[in-house]
Each structure stands twice: as C-alpha cells, then as structure tokens.
Task: structure prediction
Amino acid sequence: MEKFKAVLFDFDGVIAKTMEDSSRAWAQACTELGFTFDPEEFFLCEGMKSTEYAGRLVSRHGRETAEIKKLVARKNEVYCSNNQFSFYLGIESLVERLRDDGIMIGVVSGGSRQRLLSGRSGELLKRCDTVVTGDELKQGKPSPEGYIRAALELKVSSSECLVIENAPLGIESAKRAGMRCIAVCSTLSSNHLREADEVVADHAELVQLFVDGGSSPLKAAQ
Result:
C-alpha cells in the first residue's frame, strides 16, 4: 500500500449497519406526513444529504419547502428512538490494522456530525484522522466536495486516497474527486456498483483485500 496514504470510508452501509434502520425511519416519517416512500430509491440515493433527499420527496409531492425541515426532523426522531446500531463485522479491526500500517483513516458521510459522533460510532471515529459530514458541506454526494475536503485535511493528493463506498452516488463522488474506489455490496447488488474500480460481495471479502491484496487496486498500487 505504498501508493495509498489514506483510506476514506463512507459511514452508513460501509462502517455501520444503519441503512435498514434509516429506511424504516424514513418510511414511518413519510407515512405520518403524507409522502410516498420507495426503499430501493432510498438505497440508491444513499450518500445524499438528508435535506436534499427530503427536498426531492417534497418537490415530487408538490409540497411547500418548509416541509423539508419537518420531514428530516421526524425521520431523525424515529431513527434515534428505534435503531439497532452495529458495526459491520471486521470493520473495527480493519481500521486498527490500517492505522498500525501507517495509513491515515478518513470518514466522508452525508450524515450529520452529531449522529456520527454519538454513542459507539463516536468512539471509533475519534480514532480517525478526519471526519467530514454532510451538514458541513455545501453539496452532498455525488458532488466530490466531501472527498476533496478530506484529502485537503489529510494533506494528501487524490491519487493517494482509496475510497470504500456502497452506493452509486458515493462512487461517483469518489471518482469525480480523482480517487480509486472499492464498492461493497452491503445494501445494493453489484449491478448498481459497476462504476467502482472493484466490487466485493461483502465485508469479509473487503477485509481480505487488505490482508493479502489479491488482484485488487491495492495490489496494483504497490
């Protein structure tokens, strides 16, 4: 891994198994406030800022823009009251392995800093070298803003960063930032992730790439 000085992780669906709970929270909030909700569309939009996603729903239903804030707030209330947070198996040890190897760790998420840094996730993210969240950005994914900002904060070039993503918007964000990207099929099938440099079936396969490199972009970069 001589070429890559930093590995930048998406959070939801990559570090933490949160997308299923988020989907249920959006579904309940939408039902209560009179919006239709499509779970597959939600997973495809993962990485988009919550306000942008809510804005899409509000616009589709011809509702007032004031409803955006109300919808996001209700979704957050439901999520905070009903979630079963857990890390994907192997992800915590992978972060520690990379740090031990001298690789800088970053997180680039469309989620809010308050949510990411609270509870168990906060303990892991405190060990990261940079955390960029959606509420700090002008544009969410697929804009490259978040990944570019992370590279600047780490003082590395885009070509020295490897991104781990799980959704099309995140992959596009990484590629537009000039970074290599590995996608993991945690919430979507591989046919949705074809723009990544490499696609792995699950987190076990992801971790294995860092153990022996295989034929992955990590191997090619050495």
